[in-house]
Amino acid sequence: MKKTEFHFKPHNVGRWFIWSLFALMLFVAPRIWTSGLAQTMLTQMGIGVIACLAYNILLGQGGMLSFGHAVYSGMGAFLAIHALNMAGAGTLGIPVSLIPLVGGFAGLVAAALLGYVSTKKAGTPFAMITLGIGELVFALTLMLPEFSGGEGGVSSNRVIGKPFLGITFGPQIQVYYLVAVYCFICTAAMFALTRTPLGRMLNAVRDNPERVEFVGYNTHWVRFMAFTISGFFAGVAGGLGAINAEIVNGSDVLHAARSGAYLLFTFLGGATFFFGPIIGAVLMVICGVLLSELTKAWLLYLGLIFLFMVMYAPGGFASLILMNLRVAAFGKLKKLWTSYLALAGTALAALVGAATMIEMVYHRQLNEALGPELRFMGATLNSAGVDAWFGAGFLIVVGAGLFELVRRHYVHEWGEIQEDIEKEIKRREAL
Amino acid sequence: MDQVFINLLNGLSSGLLLFMLSSGLTLIFSMMGVLNFAHASFYMVGAYVAYTVVGIVGFWTALLFAPIAVGLLGAGFERLALRRVHKFGHVPELLITFGLSYVVLELVQLIWGRTAVTFTPPALLEGSALTIVSSAQQGMSLVLGKASPEVCAVANCSTFPATKAFMMLVALLMLLALWLLLTRTRVGLIIQASLTHPEMVEALGHNVPRVLMLVFGSGCALAGLAGVIGGITFVTEPNMAAFIGAIIFVVVVVGGIGSLAGAFVGSIVVGLLQTLPLTVNGSLATLLTSLGFTVTAATPGYPLLRLTMAEVAPILPYLLMVLILIFRPKGLLGTRED
Fold this sequence. Notes:
Largest interface: A-B, 46 and 48 residues
Strand content of chain B: 5-15%
Strand order of the largest sheet of chain B: 2-1-3
Number of strands of chain A: 4
Low-confidence stretches of chain A: none
Helix content of chain A: over 70%
Order of helices and strands of chain B: HHHHEEHEHHHHHHHHHH
Order of helices and strands of chain A: HHHHHHEHHHHEHHHHHHEEH
CATH class of the largest domain in chain A: Mainly Alpha
Radius of gyration of chain A: 25 Å
Oligomer: heterodimer
Strand content of chain A: under 5%
Number of helices of chain B: 15
Radius of gyration of chain B: 22 Å
Number of helices of chain A: 17
Mean pLDDT of chain B: 82
Shape of chain A: globular
Shape of chain B: globular
Helix content of chain B: 55-70%
Distance between the termini of chain A: 40 Å
Structural class of chain A: mainly alpha
Structural class of chain B: mainly alpha
Number of domains of chain B: 2
Mean pLDDT of chain A: 84
Distance between the termini of chain B: 43 Å
Strand order of the largest sheet of chain A: 1-2
Number of domains of chain A: 2
Low-confidence stretches of chain B: none
């Protein structure tokens, strides 16, 4: 058919730029951070990005709060590791680079089977059902040692077959690039999904299911489709994880803590924005690897951050970044930066005080035998003496008090700036 | 036979414990629309608080004090955190209780340590409540308390611990008190009215947010009470919340979301389902064999068929939940379709 009218369709330069930047970052990251630990972390981040984005199809785009998404990434991991073992034994002719797809299809099938029941309801019942199904699959899998390897898990070897163009997947860097390629493709595919009619209907089902029913769509079916797609991508992440770790242990990959981590970090990153879960996944690996080394109480800090995020910034870190970018775009950030400095300073004081107390309690709880002294932030504290406790308490009180003063001032300023920006937008529209 | 009877009692008692938890959960859910993910955490806090207080004031005061303390904590959480996110909708409300469950778990480990504490029942509740003596000559008989060793030397004795009997007693008393409170008192009538017509109740001059805080606090107090009793009966450890947390959601889904009677039926069913199969040593394989099929290791699905009933008992409640969702999505006694 010949076009009868001319449509002006400019290239979306911004989008091309961002995606190229994303690809470039994936490409150069392991060349900037070259240590073994960094490469392992980068690989895990790539896997985490896929998993959290898959989770966000449910949470952010569908409004479905799942407590059992580890089921689908875990099933993907198990099927992938079995496929890898079969490929290694020569019974299945599949290259290692396609193993994650096996995981993806495992996740898809599992989500199609269990998703029909799960997605019958939305909202709170959905959350309860996914939690129950998560526990069911977890317990059942550990009962079948033929499938799950029992307590020890299933281990494998990813270096199989002849090298293809010199790629054996032996060195970590090659696994990283495999993950990076999958990460880029999956991110692009999931972004594309948000632009399809299905993706749009999913948003509609999240916002107003009753109206969607009146328009003539079946909300259960829309949720089910989204659930299976999400299961597929979660399975791909699981399969990549299996290749990366070369071992899959049911009490790790299927555990409720894994599902909880997906939820927690996807929300912290920002569920209402497409790129939010990417931030969340990066945080997930940093917290899991670095923060947990630093302190035993890391889950407590994480839980507290999460609580405050739910209360004060439900859009996660992504929304904080975007809101300040908007302020910066209107050239008003210079008004705020002193407040930010004051906020950060007072919050840091209160946090150091609180952290000192928490660490001292933990020290008394866990390392009683090592004596009352502990090293914290380069200082030696005596957890049995009054001084350290008093100092920490003083820091908390002063820090929190000053923080509250600064916060009130900041909230006032922020409100004024937002009003100014609204006015400015109105003025520009009127031009 | 005696073992079956003891198991039946065990199942009933654990069902009643589940009811103590699921009733609070249901009350909060039907009043506020909030699924309290941290409900089992309050249960755990109840056990730990009682453990600490017992050393100072004795068990019976602790039994009263711990639920009140947990209730105050719950009310404080509602006032300071939950009420703030109420305007964002139900998902953030669920998220904030989810975050709370993390924080509570870590705080409990921070204060009381990562290993189990020894929380023993008082002298009155130690030992057994009743003993079933079954001997070949005299058949079965029931002895209150502990049977004498001479009797047990010649006959088969099965005991039922006093703590579990106490658990049943407290749960039934609580059920009665809850029912009286909700149907026979002024507060209960206001609560029921706020359930269906919050605006009207507010127009009549009642402070609905305060009623909600009260309900959340009482629900948590019930969980705390269950915690004290669960603590002396089972192990008081940081895992106890995760252990029971998922099951109470199953109870609520099976019984029907938002129905107190449903929560009761669901609790009993799930409690029995968890304990009764423990005595059955058969599996699907033995069933098929007795029906005349030959089942060997080569039969397809043998790993599944081989599992005995005792082994699969922990997952039966979850299977029941899936079946209920397929065939009766609103739950056994539920009235809400969505």
